[in-house]
């Protein structure tokens, strides 16, 4: 009996151990599954990149091509679109931006403008840069695009043309939307493009505060004034994204743009950015004096002319063109996601100027919001560009145009979206008169030269200097420029007059860029432009 009892007890212990082992294995398995599910549910938000803004070289990258939520970094593209409209003369810093009920109801952060009220474009710009105001972003989007969703479509199309192949926008502010995504690399491209394409407006990003209706509104960028050379750009935060920051640094001729995404706190994000700047700025290539002519050639666009506070209304019929692919400076990089194609996209943004505004009569008019304040009175019909409905559902990775090499060969890119004209009612008093271009052709004969493309090799303070540069280039280029004609074109910047030095008469984009390649070997700065 005793032996039987011991045997039974031993069996119970063995069974208990087995049960305990199974239970522990099950618990471990459950823990692993739970942790994996949690990791899948909350993937890492961190990403970072540092780009040499003089060369386009990637100095540092960590998860730089992983999808992230941009948060208020979205407002960088909103501002890019605003600057584009200002340079084209469609709006100016004193243009009044109305707030609809929709715009006024956007959640914080905001500046609290009531529906039916207006603010100037300049105040809206400063509200986006300092307060990161969602209401002002929505109002700008409605004014420029007709509605915020439509403006977001335009933002996405512009992102594609800048080479931001992994970015999709859903609103003008960066408020949470699961389909609004980007990458650290794309945000770096945008940061570089803002400075390269619109240097006359870039100074806004260096402002840490502004006065609005008797109050001082302070900014969120704590690195301004703390780190030598930091001159912008933008902060961002929503719960899903963590703390984001794009920073531009210009010190001793070295220029970098750095991006940090997914910080746990604003302080930790700033500390990470500080370490990246300290570690990589010295690796950047200093700008050379030989690049000065190219920089002037890029930056010679005149500031938008001032418009009277109460401008005359536009004619009732306003033509709206589709965006033309041949006016876009950069095509989207190859969708393979390779570092090489990404490098091409960044280098292209650095080396080329922004889209050339269409000349009259193809002058883009402004569309006003579809939801207008109750005080609105008379209306007119204005057509606004409306991309196809497929744009909001576009795959930001697989949808791409040709790579940079194909662009230079003159190959047509895959269309981003067809644009059609759709008339909507717009309050007449809110439409601004497009301003005529301020440039004049100094050599009239050049206007009669055939060819859709030209090249520009510099902008000089006197016509004699411009002609001397053209003569020197013609002598050194040999047969490359034999079928073209030199010309100078004047433009005003502030109180100064400058002269563009150009060769016109290229039949194709390829021919123009081939000529630039030949001139660059002779130490000339050069870029091709559509006439």
TrEMBL record:
Q: Name one Pfam family in it.
A: Peptidase_S11
Keywords linked to the UniProt accession: Carboxypeptidase, Cell shape, Cell wall biogenesis/degradation, Hydrolase, Peptidoglycan synthesis, Protease, Signal
Gene Ontology MF annotations: peptidoglycan binding; serine-type D-Ala-D-Ala carboxypeptidase activity
Question: PROSITE patterns in the record, alphabetically?
Answer: SPOR
Active-site residues annotated for this sequence: 72, 75, 132
Q: Residues that bind substrate, according to the entry? A: 234
Matching entries from InterPro entries are given as: Beta-lactam/transpept-like, Peptidase_S11, Peptidase_S11_N, SPOR-like_dom, SPOR-like_sf
**GO BP terms in the entry:** cell wall organization; peptidoglycan biosynthetic process; proteolysis; regulation of cell shape
Which residue ranges does the record assign to the SPOR domain?
A: 447-531
Tell me which family the UniProt entry assigns to this protein: Belongs to the peptidase S11 family.
Q: What is this protein called?
A: D-alanyl-D-alanine carboxypeptidase
**Which lineage?**
Bacteria, Pseudomonadati, Pseudomonadota, Alphaproteobacteria, Hyphomicrobiales
């Amino acid at each position: 009996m005793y032996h039987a009892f011991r045997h039974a007890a031993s069996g119970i212990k063995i069974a208990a151990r087995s049960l305990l082992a199974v239970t522990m294995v099950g618990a471990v398995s459950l823990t692993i599954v739970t942790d994996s599910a949690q990791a899948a549910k909350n993937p890492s938000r961190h990403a970072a990149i540092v780009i040499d803004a003089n060369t386009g070289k990637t100095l540092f990258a960590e998860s730089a091509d992983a999808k992230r939520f941009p948060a208020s970094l979205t407002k960088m593209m909103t501002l890019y679109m605003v600057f584009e409209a200002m340079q084209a003369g469609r709006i100016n810093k004193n243009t009044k931006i109305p707030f609809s009920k929709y715009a006024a109801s956007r959640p914080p952060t905001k500046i609290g403008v009531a529906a039916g009220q207006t603010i100037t474009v300049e105040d809206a710009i400063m509200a986006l840069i300092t307060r990161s105001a969602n209401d002002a972003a929505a109002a700008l989007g409605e004014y420029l695009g007709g509605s915020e969703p439509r403006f977001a479509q335009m933002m996405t199309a512009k992102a594609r043309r800048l080479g931001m192949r992994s970015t999709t926008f859903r609103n003008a502010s960066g408020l949470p939307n699961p389909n609004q995504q980007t990458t650290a690399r794309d945000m770096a491209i945008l940061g570089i493009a803002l400075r390269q394409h619109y240097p006359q407006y870039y100074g806004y990003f260096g402002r840490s505060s502004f006065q609005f209706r008797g109050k001082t509104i302070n900014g969120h960028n704590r690195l301004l004034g703390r780190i030598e050379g930091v001159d912008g750009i933008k902060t961002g935060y929503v719960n899903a994204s963590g703390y984001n920051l794009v920073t531009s640094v210009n010190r001793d001729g070295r220029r970098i743009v750095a991006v940090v995404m997914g910080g746990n706190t604003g302080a930790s994000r700033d500390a990470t950015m500080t370490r990246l700047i300290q570690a990589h700025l010295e690796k950047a290539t200093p700008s050379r004096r030989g690049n000065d002519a190219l920089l002037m050639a890029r930056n010679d666009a005149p500031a938008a002319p001032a418009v009277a506070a109460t401008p005359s209304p536009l004619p009732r019929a306003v033509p709206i063109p589709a965006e033309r692919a041949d006016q876009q400076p950069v095509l989207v990089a190859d969708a393979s996601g390779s570092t090489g194609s990404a490098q091409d996209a960044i280098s292209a943004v650095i080396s080329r100027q922004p889209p050339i505004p269409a000349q009259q009569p193809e002058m883009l008019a402004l569309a006003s919001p579809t939801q207008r304040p109750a005080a609105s009175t008379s209306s007119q019909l204005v057509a606004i560009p409306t991309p196809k409905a497929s744009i909001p559902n576009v795959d930001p990775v697989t949808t791409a145009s040709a790579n940079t090499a194909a662009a230079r060969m003159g190959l047509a890119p895959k269309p981003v979206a067809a644009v059609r004209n759709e008339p909507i009612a717009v309050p007449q008093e809110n439409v601004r008169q497009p301003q005529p271009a301020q440039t004049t052709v100094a050599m009239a004969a050049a206007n009669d030269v055939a060819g859709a493309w030209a090249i520009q090799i510099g902008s000089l303070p006197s016509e004699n200097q411009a002609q001397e540069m053209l003569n020197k280039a013609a002598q050194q280029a040999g047969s490359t420029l034999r079928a073209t004609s030199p010309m100078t074109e004047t433009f005003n910047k502030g109180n100064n007059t400058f002269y563009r030095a150009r060769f016109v008469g290229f039949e194709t984009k390829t021919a123009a860029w081939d000529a630039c390649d030949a001139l660059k070997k002779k130490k000339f700065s050069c870029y091709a432009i559509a006439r």
